[in-house]
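Narrative of accomplishments. A recurring question from our advisory board has been how the design workflow behaves on a single, concrete structure rather than in aggregate. To address it, we present the structure tokens for one chain from the evaluation set, followed by the sequence designed for it. No filtering or post-editing was applied between the two.
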């Protein structure tokens, strides 16, 4: 816990809350049933697995989005060349129509 975090015990349910002083948000919450004898949260391997799975899912989606954006950028010069050629042909046709 850093200097910007404080640990608070709820007087009603005796849960432990870790609060960020600057943003006034609850960073962690541990109900009394999930605390050990010293008052620290008990680590649950299932929660750890869920968190790792969520991070991997997010990372996979970000990687897919990055790869798609990279492919678009790599194809961009070819697409711009094609647009230029179309505009050039259109200009040439327009020049032939005028006497």
């Amino acid at each position: 816990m850093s200097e910007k975090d404080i640990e608070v015990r709820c007087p009603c349910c005796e849960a432990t809350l870790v609060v960020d002083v600057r943003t006034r948000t609850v960073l962690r919450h541990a109900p009394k049933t999930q605390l050990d004898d010293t008052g620290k949260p008990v680590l649950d391997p299932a929660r750890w697995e869920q968190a790792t799975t969520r991070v991997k899912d997010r990372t996979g989606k970000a990687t897919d989005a990055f790869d798609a954006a990279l492919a678009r950028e790599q194809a961009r010069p070819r697409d711009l060349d094609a647009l230029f050629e179309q505009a050039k042909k259109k200009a040439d046709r327009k020049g032939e129509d005028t006497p």
